[in-house]
Sequence to fold (575 residues):
Amino acid sequence: MLEETLVLFKNIRNPEYDKSLAGYKKSGGFKSLKKVFGMKPEDVVQEVKESGIRGRGGAGFPTGLKWSFMAKDTGKPSYLVANADESEPGTCKDRELMLKDPHLFLEGLMIGSYAIGCHHAYVYVRGEYFPSIKTLNSAVDELYADGLLGPNPLGSGFQLDITIHTGAGAYICGEESALLDSLEGKRGHPRVKPPFPAVSGFNACPTSVNNVETLACMPFILSDGGAEAFKSFGPQNNSGTHLVSLSGHVNRPGVYELRMDVNMKDIIYDIGGGIRNGKKLKGVIPGGSSSPVMTADEVDVLYNFDDLAKKGTMMGSAAMMVFDEDTDVVKLLHRITRFYAHESCGQCTPCREGTHWSRQIVRDFLSGNGSDEKLKLLNRVGGNMMGTTLCALGDAAAMPIQSFVKKFPDEFRKYYAIA
Amino acid sequence: MFSKDIQTQVDKLLSRYPIRQNALIPILHLAQNENEGWLTEEWMQHVADICEVPLTHVEGVVTFYTMFRIKPPGKYHLQVCTCVPCCLVGGTELLEHTEKKLAIHAGHTTTDGTFSIEEMECIGACSNAPAVIVNEDYHEQVTPEDMDKMIDELRQ
Ligand SMILES: Cc1cc2nc3c(=O)[nH]c(=O)nc-3n(C[C@H](O)[C@H](O)[C@H](O)COP(=O)(O)O)c2cc1C
Ligand code: SF4
Ligand code: FES
Fold:
C-alpha cells in the first residue's frame, strides 16, 4: 500500500503519543519556536517563502507572500487569526489536528505571530466543534501555566496571548473577511476588498487569516533544513505534504497525509481501498463541494494545486468526495445547491437569487419536469454568479452547477418531462 | 442574570478582546446555555447591555447564526448531518428514520420537550459519515439502529 508521508501526523500516527504539553515537548515540540525567537521576524517570513507553502484553506495563496503584505509601522496592533471554521463540505482535517495534536498547531500559530509581530492571536473555531474547542482551551491553559504564553515565552521577551473564539454556525464565516466581521461581534458578511485584511482586518488593524493546517506546518518548516525538506515533498510550486479528507463510497474513508505528487487514482484505489461493494467509480468532487466535478475517466492525475487546475478543476481544501455508479448525480447536485442556498449571506443579488433559483430548477428536474430549456437555464443561472459577487461563494455555488451539467448531461435527461 | 460562576467567565471573555462588542458571540453562547438552550428578549437585552451594543444589533446577530435559537430546543437536540458526504452514505435516510421514530420533522420538538431534530450542513466528520451531534457530543458512522438505541437510552 502507498505510504503516508508523516510531517503533520507524525505524532498522531504514533499510538503511544500523549497530546499534553509534556508529551508534545517530549516529541521535540517547541524546538522550532525557540529557534525562531533567535531569528529576525523578516527572516522567518523569508524561510516560509522559501518552503513554497501555499495556504491549505482553499485558495492556495503563498503564505510567505501573504505575511510580507502585512502593513508595517501603522501604530496599530497586528493580528494573526487562525481560520478553524472548517465548513467546506467534505473537509474534516483541521479537526484531526486540533483534537489530536493541539500543541503542534498552537506552536505554528506562535511562530506565525512572531513572524508578523502579533501579540494577541485568535483562533476562530466553528461553534459546532465542541470537542475541539475544549481541547484547544485546555492546551492554551497549559501553555499559560508553563509560561510559553504570557509576557515572556521561552525567555524571549515577546509578549504573546492566544484566545480561542467560538463561532456560531455559518459557512460564510470561513471566508476571511466575513470571519473578521464575525470575530468583531457582527453578522458574518464578507467585506468589499480592497482594503485587504493585511491593511485593515480585525477592528481595522492589519491582520493575516491563515488556515489551521497551514499554521501546523510551521514547526516543521522552521526546523533545521525544514524549508528545503518541505519543498522536496511535491512538484515545483506544490510544496509539502498535505491532509486529504477522503469520503464517500470508498472502502477506507479517512484523513491521510500525502505528498503532492501522488496520483488521484492511487488515493481512491490504493489508500482508499477502492469503491465499496465492488462497484465502479462514477465520479469525484475533488476539492470540497465548490470544486468542479470530475468523471471516472479523468482521475489519472497528480493530486495537487496545479495539476488539478490544468484539468479545469481545483484542489481547494483537499476534500475528495468519491461516488459510485449507482449515484444519482441530479440528486447529488440538488443537495449541493441546497447547501449554497442555505449559506448565501444575501448581500449580492446574483448569489442570493442564483443559489435559490438553481436549487429550484434542480428540484424541478427531480419532480420529472426537466427539459433542454431548463438545463440551459440552470447553466445560465450558474454562469450569472461567476465572478459577479463580493466574495467567492458565488463562484463556489456556480462551479458545481456548470460542471455537473457539462459532465453528466445524460443524467439530467432521465428527468425530462415526457412529451 | 448570569450565575456567579458564569459571570466570571463573561468577565474573562471581556478581558480577552480590545472592544466589548468583540466578545458578543461567545457571551451569547454562555447566555443560551444558562437559559436551557435558547435566547429570550430579556437575555438578549442583558447581553446587549454587557457588550454595549443596541438590542437590534444582538437580534441581528442571533438571527444570522444557526446555533442561536429563539425558541426552546428539546432536552436532547439531535443534529443530523445530511450534507454531501453524509448524504452519499445514508445521512438523508438517517434523518428520515429519526423523524419517523420521533414523529416530528426536523426543526421541531417532541410535545414532551425531550427531543428536537435539526438537519445540519457539513459538521466536519465526513470521513466517518453519517454523523450526528447530540447536544455537544459527536456520534459518527451512525446507523438507523444506532439511532434507535441512542434515543431509547436517552428516553430513560
Ligand atoms: C465561502 C468561503 C468559505 C471558506 N471557508 C474556509 C474555511 O472553512 N476554512 C479556511 O481555512 N478557509 C476558508 N476559506 C478561505 C479563506 O477565505 C482564506 O482564504 C483562508 O482561510 C486563508 O488561509 P490560508 O492562506 O492558510 O489558506 C473560505 C473561503 C470562502 C470564499
Ligand atoms: S457572494 Fe454570496 S455569500 Fe458572498 S457576499 Fe455575496 S451574497 Fe454573500
Ligand atoms: S457532510 Fe456530514 S459531516 Fe461532512
Remarks:
- Chain A touches chain B through 53 residues (CB under 8 Å).
- The pocket of flavin mononucleotide (ligand 1) is lined by residues A 55-59, 61, 63, 66, 83, 85-88, 172, 174-176, 209-211, 214, 391-393, 396 (CB under 6 Å).
- Chain A has a mean pLDDT of 97.
